[in-house]
Design a protein that fits this description.
Blueprint lengths: L1 E4 L2 E4 L4 E3 H7 L7 E5 L2 E3 L8 E3 L3 E6 L5
Parallel strand pairs: 1-7
Antiparallel strand pairs: 1-2, 3-6, 4-5, 4-7
Length: 67
């Protein structure tokens, strides 16, 4: 499966993966993340059930705070 992940082409084995599976494969482990799939916001509680398919555009953005 080929998708766009954070504006880069990525290839994964298999036909479909969940957002959670992709985050695990790519080591996204920060607590504060914003996830958008095809420009739609994905809530944290939906990561495990939201399916990413061939050609999808997935953005996983780390939020940074400080003072």
């Amino acid at each position: 499966m080929q998708i766009i992940l954070n504006n880069r082409s990525e290839t994964f084995k298999g036909q479909e993966l969940t957002v959670s599976e992709i985050m695990e494969l790519k080591s996204f482990r920060f607590k504060m993340l914003v996830v958008r799939l095809n420009d739609q916001l994905v809530k944290k509680e939906d990561y495990a059930t939201t399916i990413v398919k061939e050609g999808d555009d997935l953005k996983i953005i780390h939020l940074v705070s400080g003072g």
